[in-house]
């Protein structure tokens, strides 16, 4: 039986008697992708991928589809159905998956992601990979064309899963593949490498420079911000055993969790050189490219939902009732929306800044201070309620030591304030506490950021 090439002009045909080929979405050698529909009330758009049944990895692909169909996770693209069919006398394997309206690979040629967007995408990918690895699978094809948006939800395509530890034919040296994957060594560490390459591309619109023949490690662009540059370097280690884990990436993205997880009560071993270790700045938010094309979107930030989420939270906080039954809007007539043209013009609110009532110094062991060279800096942003107590605290800058970060956070939460006032009423405020640890002294400055 001679295999015919998969052609874009097959649009209009029906696969397996139930999946119409509506529109050519793209393809590569030995693979074709079409828009299709799943029958139901109403009908649902989906994607169908065709590969020749004679392809060397066809059986492995079908086995991977069978396994992927059993997986259930909100960050994984749903795999609806798979099977075999005949077209023009040739046999093909096919898989039908959820349709992604937007593809990361279509966004990156137009612009790089912002650090906030990259933070959100990376967190989602880490969570999806943790689920896959926990189920005994390796993604094996992680790259921007596998990251999609379905109704404002980021999802990872799973149409090419591999069993961890299983033998595999040697892959071609693809741009996103680790050497160990190309040699047929299937392990979760291969996904870590691909994640590092994808992360660099998300923020710089290009993959890291790397000469496979030289056997050196890829070069991470200097313009990449932290903590992403450090994460990428840890991912792109030639030796799989030296690459970071998904948990380590997650803790880099949320350093406050790293402090809690470590639970350090004594200083980190070894000297801390504050002059050479760069601080990690906490983020502000806690197929191939042609295999599934979609209209290029200029609104990827809508997909990750950063601005929308912040706006909703800000409005909800502004309108929420206080213990006295009034909202912030009702307490601030100068900020309220006028309902009639004949109302008198709003007056400027009278604001009185808050003051510090109780300063709590960080508790640091002398043996820990002795390890410092220079100054270890940790910034903590605290939200003060209308009673003057710290209601919330987050890291604004997380220094090179978890021990000192933990000490700063513990101290910041114990501070007390005279609350700020607007029009004679106590209101919430935001302060920035900047801690500086040295061998001989610990200093802290407090600045009220709002109101």
Which descriptors apply to this entry?
alpha+beta; Transferase(Phosphotransferase), domain 1; four-stranded antiparallel beta sheet; Phosphorylase Kinase, domain 1; about 450 residues; single chain
Low-confidence stretches: 169-173, 264-269, 275-299, 306-319, 326-341
Shape estimate: elongated
Q: What's the N-to-C terminus distance?
A: 76 Å
CATH class of the largest domain: Mainly Alpha
| Mean of all residue-level pLDDT scores | 79
The total count of strands amounts to 23
Question: Which range does the strand content fall in?
Answer: 25-35%
Spatial order of the strands forming the largest sheet = 3-4-5-7-6
Total helices: the number is 13
Radius of gyration: 27 Å
| Number of separate domains | 4
Question: Which class of secondary structure composition applies to the elements?
Answer: alpha+beta
CATH architecture of the largest domain: Orthogonal Bundle
CATH H-level homologous superfamily name of the largest domain: Transferase(Phosphotransferase) domain 1
């Amino acid at each position: 039986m001679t295999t015919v090439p998969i052609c874009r002009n097959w649009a209009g045909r029906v696969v397996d008697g139930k999946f119409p080929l509506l529109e050519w979405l793209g393809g590569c050698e030995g693979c074709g992708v079409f828009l299709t529909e799943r029958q139901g009330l109403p009908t649902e758009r989906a994607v169908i991928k065709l590969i020749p049944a004679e392809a060397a990895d066809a059986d492995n692909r079908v086995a991977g589809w069978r396994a992927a169909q059993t997986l259930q996770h909100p960050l994984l693209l749903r795999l609806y159905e798979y099977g075999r069919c005949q077209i023009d006398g040739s046999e093909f394997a096919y898989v039908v998956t959820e349709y992604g309206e937007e593809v990361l690979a279509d966004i990156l040629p137009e612009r790089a992601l912002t650090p906030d967007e990259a933070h959100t995408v990376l967190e989602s990918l880490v969570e999806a990979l943790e689920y896959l690895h926990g189920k005994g699978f390796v993604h094996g094809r992680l790259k921007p064309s596998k990251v999609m948006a379905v109704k404002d939800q980021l999802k990872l395509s799973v149409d090419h899963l591999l069993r961890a530890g299983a033998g595999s034919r040697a892959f071609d040296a693809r741009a996103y593949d680790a050497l160990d994957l190309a040699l047929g060594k299937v392990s979760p560490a291969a996904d870590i490498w691909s994640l590092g390459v994808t992360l660099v591309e998300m923020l710089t619109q290009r993959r890291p420079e790397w000469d496979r023949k030289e056997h050196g490690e890829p070069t991470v662009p200097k313009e990449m911000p932290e903590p992403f540059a450090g994460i990428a370097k840890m991912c792109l280690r030639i030796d799989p055993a030296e690459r970071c884990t998904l948990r380590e990436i997650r803790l880099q993205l949320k350093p406050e969790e790293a402090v809690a997880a470590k639970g350090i009560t004594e200083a980190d071993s070894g000297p801390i050189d504050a002059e050479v270790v760069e601080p990690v700045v906490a983020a502000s938010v806690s197929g191939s490219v042609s295999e599934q094309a979609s209209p290029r979107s200029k609104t990827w930030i809508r997909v990750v939902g950063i601005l929308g989420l912040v706006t909703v939270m800000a409005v909800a906080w502004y309108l929420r009732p206080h213990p006295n039954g009034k909202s912030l809007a009702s307490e601030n007539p100068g900020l309220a929306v006028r309902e009639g043209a004949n109302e008198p013009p709003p007056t400027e609110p009278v604001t009185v800044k808050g003051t510090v009532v109780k300063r709590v110094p960080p508790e640091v062991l002398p043996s820990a201070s002795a390890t410092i060279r220079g100054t270890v800096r940790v910034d903590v942003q605290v939200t003060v309620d209308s009673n003057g107590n710290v209601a919330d605290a987050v890291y604004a800058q997380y220094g090179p030591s978890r021990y000192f970060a933990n000490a700063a956070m513990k101290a910041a939460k114990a501070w007390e304030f005279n609350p700020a006032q607007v029009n004679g009423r106590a209101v919430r405020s935001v302060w920035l506490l900047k801690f500086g640890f040295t061998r001989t002294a610990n200093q802290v400055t407090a600045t009220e950021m709002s109101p």
